[in-house]
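The instructor's notes for this session suggest beginning with a concrete chain rather than abstract definitions. Hand out the sequence below and ask the class to guess, before any prediction is shown, which regions might be ordered.
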Amino acid sequence: MTYLTLSGKVLSDSILEVAKEEVSSMKRKPGLAVVLVGDNPASVTYVDKKKKSAESVGMKFELVNLPKETSESELLSVVERLNNDPAIDGFIVQLPLPKQIDEKKVLLAIDSAKDVDGFHPVNMGRMLAGDESVLLPATPAGIIKMIEHFKIPVAGKHAVIVGRSNIVGKPIASLLLNRDATVTVCHSKTKDLAVYTRTADVLVVAVGKPKMITADMVKEGAYVIDVGTTKVEGKLTGDVDFESVIKKAHCSPVPGGVGLLTVSALISNTVKAAKSRG
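After discussion, reveal the predicted structure:
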């Protein structure tokens, strides 16, 4: 049997096309800003993709590039400026941040109406309560778009999430629960991980350990969504051993899968934030 490669390319392009049409019909160009502290190579790459996508749909884009020695108070003052800038509808502070900065304090300082990464406790809390009208976390929102696009059955199915981060694991578990999946969340302290992954109808992996999920850990015919991205010998590598798993289950590739949808979901969130601000 041939299994589906769950590519994000066509879907991402269509999401950006919809955003472009929406932007063209708006009286004012939406503004997206990204704050980058330091020069983490992976972060620089992600920011460049966000810039290109924003500009491709006609948005205004602002990059605030700060040195890695930036203090917490200096970063918080930048956040305050962006909160009060009428030309900026949404902004993100690119993670991870240097050790001298309290990530939680920075995320809490962002205006929840401009939080297009969807990490603010107000947006996360409302999402956990089942309200998806808020700005949803970009990567989980992209995963849901992929599930809808490929018509992946979720209701009544067993979804296993490997990874419990606030960025992916916890929010995607909540969104899948909202869609009537039975959800199991595994993490670094889970014993006998394969016992759980083999029972998954839908398996979402987001831990940053290259090729940790192999074919023997996957149920025949399952849907495997790989969120991991790690540079291995200069190449972007996922958490799933795609070459072996695709012979046994439907699987998203890295690159070319969820990463593209994360960026397009961020753009969609910015359009949504701009519309709500009027």
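Then share the key points. The chain has a mean pLDDT of 96. Strands lie at 31-37, 60-66, 90-93, 158-162, 182-186, 202-205, 223-226, 230-232, 235-237, 250-251.
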